[in-house]
Amino acid sequence: MLRAWRLYRELSPIEAAELAGVSPDTILWHERGYNVPNAGTLKRFADIYDCTVGKLTPKPGSETTPVQSIRPHKDRAMEYSPDDTRYPDAVMAHLTEGKSPIAAWRRHRHMAIKQCAKAFGCAPKTFKEMEALPVLRDRTRKSLAMVLACNPTQLLRPKKMVVEPVSFHAEPAPSGHCP
């Protein structure tokens, strides 16, 4: 509904972004349903589009689904990379440490979360949340691959890799025994 109102008011994403005090990518991010705008952001959009907040959100019980979040569907199965997918050694080392493929590539490229978020067109908090997700949509993975300069299939965890949780608690040594 955000896009419909922007178009109805004959504003480009750049013009809407200037009025809202955000980037054009953020405008498109909200319009495409990748993030749920908070109450303050919705109020800002309502002021810009000269409508009520209620007109920007679906009515209860309507068949219109609200804006999607980046959270994966619970019923969506974990996806793995094809067996022939190759990874740089540094990326594999990060994956073995338990990092997500996105975090592994980000670290391999020596990029900060803030830098990646800006290139992707989202807030750093949102990018950090994406790094932790077990499953991403294909379109999101393709966009991330452009930011991280890798192949979209390299943003999937290798199927044969088993990552054991790491415990940081050392067990006490038996009394009177030195290791």
* Contiguous helical run count: 10
Mean pLDDT: 79
The rounded distance between the terminal residues' Cα atoms is 65 Å
Number of domains: 2
* SSE order, one letter for each helix or strand: HHHHHEHHHHHE
The main β sheet shows up as: 2 strands, parallel
Radius of gyration: 21 Å
Report the principal-axis shape. Answer: elongated
What does this structure look like?
With 179 residues, the protein is an all-alpha fold. It folds into two domains: 2-56, 434 Repressor (Amino-terminal Domain) (Orthogonal Bundle), CATH 1.10.260; 80-158, 434 Repressor (Amino-terminal Domain). The protein has helices at residues 2-8, 13-20, 24-31, 39-49, 53-56, 89-96, 101-108, 113-120, 124-132, 138-148, and strands at 80-81, 157-158. It has a two-stranded parallel sheet with strand order 1-2. Helix 2 crosses helix 3, helix 6 (89-96) crosses helix 7 and helix 8 (113-120) crosses helix 9. The protein is elongated and about 55 Å long.
A few lines on this structure:
The chain is an all-alpha fold. Helix content is 46%, strand content 2%.
Characteristic key phrases:
46% helix; two-stranded parallel sheet; 179 residues; 434 Repressor (Amino-terminal Domain); elongated
Topology:
Blueprint: H1 2-8, H2 13-20, H3 24-31, H4 39-49, H5 53-56, E1 80-81, H6 89-96, H7 101-108, H8 113-120, H9 124-132, H10 138-148, E2 157-158
Parallel strand pairs: 1-2
